[in-house]
UniProtKB/TrEMBL annotation:
Name the UniProt record assigns to this protein: Membrane protein
The keyword Membrane belongs to this UniProt entry's keyword annotation: yes
Superkingdom of the source species: Bacteria
Membrane-topology descriptor: Multi-pass membrane protein
Any Pfam family: MMPL
Boundaries of every SSD domain copy: 188-320, 509-674
The family this protein is said to belong to: Belongs to the resistance-nodulation-cell division (RND) (TC 2.A.6) family. MmpL subfamily.
GO cellular-component term (any): plasma membrane
Protein's organism: Acrocarpospora pleiomorpha
Amino acid sequence: MATLLYRLGRFSFRNRGRVAAVWLLLLALVGVAAVMFLGPSSDKFSMPGTESQRALDSLAREFPQASGAVGTIVIAAPEGGKLDPAVVAPVVKEAAAVPGVVAAIDPFQARALSPDGRYALVQVQFKDNVDDITDAQREAYLKAGAAATGIQVEHGGEVLRAAPEVGGSEAIGVLIAAIVLIVTFGSLVAAGMTLLNALVGVGVGMAGLYALSGVVELTSVTPVLALMLGLAVGIDYSLFITSRYRQFLAEGLEREEAAGRATGTAGSAVVFAGATVVIALAGLFVAGIPFLTVMGLAAAGTVAVAVLVAVTLLPAILAYAGPRVLPRKQRVGQGVAKEGFGYTWGRLVSRLRVPILLVGIVGLGVLALPVQDLRLALPDAGTAAPGTPARAAYDLTSEGFGEGFNARLIAVVSAEDAAAVNAAAGQAAGLIQQVPGVLAVAPPQPNATGTTALLAIIPKEGPTAASTEAAVQAIRDKVATIAGAEISVTGATAVGIDVSDKLAEAMPVYLLLVVGLSVLLLMLVFRSILVPLKAALGFLLTIGSTFGITVAIFQQGHLAGLFGVEVPGPLVSFLPILLIGILFGLAMDYEVFLVSRMREDFVHGDTARQATINGMGHNARVVTAAALIMTSVFGGFVFMDDPIIKSMGFALALGVLVDAFVVRMTLVPAVMAMLGRAAWWLPKVLDRVLPDLDVEGEKLTHHLAVSAAPVPERIG
């Protein structure tokens, strides 16, 4: 592997014009394809095979007029007053005139009034589902009743769901990343070309993703996740190879040779680090959830592009940069090599390895304790940013009717004839009314043929309340005893519960998959038994502590205001499994970056302890910069209002900090110092069976030693 990448690096350096032209042409082509084939994103978290999804599919067939998107307009009279039908009627009329609306129901006819007569709910039924609602329709819907005087009108419902806007918040992370690169390299040219390289990779990856959106349904979160990872790993991979390139230049190698060796050694680590991220993200398919599989594959694709850019385009850019990639003092021969903090830290950790291990493991274990209270749910309007229409409607509905009216459920009753439907619906309504946590059940609403009827169910508490989840399960258990009809419970709240349950079931399987994968892959990379086991255990510490802190802030509300969390509540249901996949890959990035140098020096003759210190000395600065860059990129998304993006950005930024600084740069060298030569032990049977991937470049060094002198550098 190292020899192949060495040749690729020299080829790209020597043919810099052609390589750069190919990437720029590719960027232009996929950019045009993105514009031509761009498709709409979706906020539909469908879950094939679940009861709620089966019910929605049945509605689309049997009750199409009730299967489209739903909006709810909340109207309130001034405090102490009551609503007048004459004042409400124009609002209903305007809502009915919105393009695509099938019906807007007068609250006085539907009895959708609060007991004191001050509040009313106007149900607005659209023909199309939420993914097909246009921005023009949403704007027209928001204008319905907006000019009314003497009353408060707020607009809510699923019809307002739209893709989160990626504004300028992520630019904050990129700006911080640029500052970190300048400080790390001491060269504007080196920092600039590293960012340029990463941005080209992100551009190609994101454009390719949008080009595919016309044929593949993407959730609104998918492009944001791909952008997060593409930026973070793209900068980090370029940083790692550039740092090694500068080391070789400092040792006196010619630029083309330095580029080849940097790509062969550091590039090998990048390839395998990127491979772990790609495999972990692609492995999300084991959950059996289509939208999660697409998210994983999309993010994996951007990471794969980042790897390709790092080992091909970066050597070409290095050729263009010339000696300016070095700090000014080194270019004029005044730079003096000094042992950095990494060597001091490596010696300190090696000497105090036992107390450091005890404090680190116990500390991370304590931080993981809040995981015991982990609850999962899909976000609702109650977690939307204050001041948004959806949040205002949610709060006004809760004020006038109770939170349960924001968590309405639907029981779909189907049978072959109307008589069976009526009998089953009546029996079901009686049983459901007895369920704890249920406030009310509306009379059955049949379709035109009478073969399907809907029962609207109002829980006592909100969509993410534990009592609402328990009520859904209890309703399903009770109606399952009714013979003669098929009864399913659905609605946005039920869909969220089903998604959370299925993801919770898949999470242990996926965790076992990625941990087992890490052991196998690192065994191939490092030809060791104990190093992979240590890496996997460190990953579990990272995941546990990250989950614990995230639960404490986003769910339990500790320090919530500091991070802009207005309403603490359950974590987004797909966050844990997604976090496992992403952090696994990133954790293995740092593991490979640090330990590959330890392995390299050990293979080349250093003692195990000295190799550990060398690995820290050479790469601590780079890993520190990489971790700060990733943290800043992910942390930039914490400033977004969307609760899904905010929690993802926070958890990823926190996970990177914990894994890089506590686990990889502290616990890993402590364990390596404790194990000594035993860290690199591999049974002879496995040694013969496992392929030698040569990540540390031992074969490359031998190849260079026996081969002819390198081809002289071509100028121009």
